[in-house]
Design brief:
This protein is α/β, with parallel strands linked by helices and 230 residues long. The chain is built from 9 helices and 7 strands, in the order αββαααααβαβββαβα. The chain has a single domain, classed as Thymidylate synthase/dCMP hydroxymethylase domain (Thymidylate Synthase, Chain A, 2-Layer Sandwich). 38% of the residues lie in helices and 22% in strands. It starts with 5 loop residues before the first helix and ends with a helix.
């Protein structure tokens, strides 16, 4: 079976825009969607150039495990509009990914997945679960609008490499993918480093593929100009 890659996904959106196949929401805004997307994330961007300064700041914020966007503003110098929209009046959000996989509150999932991989390299249980059933209540709690976009990520050691399978509810192809990819690559590389730290020299593993699976991958109308080939 041929595995799709970022270039294939990019071409899909180019073709859909050319054919004027959109969904239109109640406000009249257009969106190009790919439902059930699955591809190898072999590039750091689908459309546009990653903002390295912001990406480094967001990762630092995630690692701080603060669920307040004001911490991100202190690190980056300002708060992106999308995070302001997601937060309540106090700046609190749900989607600090570092909190979700590292904190005791959510059962130290990074450590649990690492221990599982070390104890059984053939495992299929090395998952870090980002969302939870209570998100149905918590996403709008206190004025928030933050229904966690990542569902879970599972890690596999196969053929001397570690792969990640990222499963998402929703992903914006322009800004969202770039920032989410950077985070997932960071976690995967750290997991490989920690895994190798427990191994002898003959069992070292290398970076494998990041398999990107999204229930709804999309481009908003405001970004259609970025889809058109130059």
């Amino acid at each position: 079976m041929k595995k799709l890659r970022v270039s294939d996904i990019r071409q899909y959106f180019i073709d859909e825009l050319a054919a004027e196949r959109f969904t239109v929401d109640k406000s009249g805004a257009k969106t190009i969607e790919l439902i059930g997307a699955s591809f190898i994330a072999d590039e750091s961007s689908i459309f546009g150039i990653p903002n390295d300064d912001y990406i480094k700041s967001e990762i630092k914020w995630y690692l701080s495990q603060s669920t307040n966007i004001n911490t991100l503003a202190d690190i980056y110098g300002k708060t992106p509009v999308a995070w302001k929209y997601a937060a309540n009046e106090h700046g609190e959000i749900n989607s600090n990914y570092g909190t979700l996989i590292y904190s005791e509150k959510y059962h130290c999932q990074y450590d649990a997945a690492l221990a599982e991989l070390i104890s059984n390299s053939d495992t299929r249980r090395a998952s870090m679960i980002y969302t939870r059933p209570s998100i149905w209540v918590e996403y709008a709690e206190g004025g928030k609008s933050d229904f966690i976009c990542t569902n879970s990520v599972t890690y596999y050691v196969r053929d001397g490499k570690m792969d990640a399978v990222v499963q998402m509810r929703s992903n914006d192809s322009v800004y969202g993918f770039k920032n989410d990819y950077a985070w997932q690559k960071e976690v995967l590389e750290n997991l490989i480093y920690d895994y190798n730290d427990f191994s002898d020299d003959t069992n070292y593993i290398e970076l494998g593929d990041i398999h990107w699976q999204v229930q709804n991958l999309h481009v908003y109308e405001k970004h259609f100009n970025m889809v058109l080939p130059s």
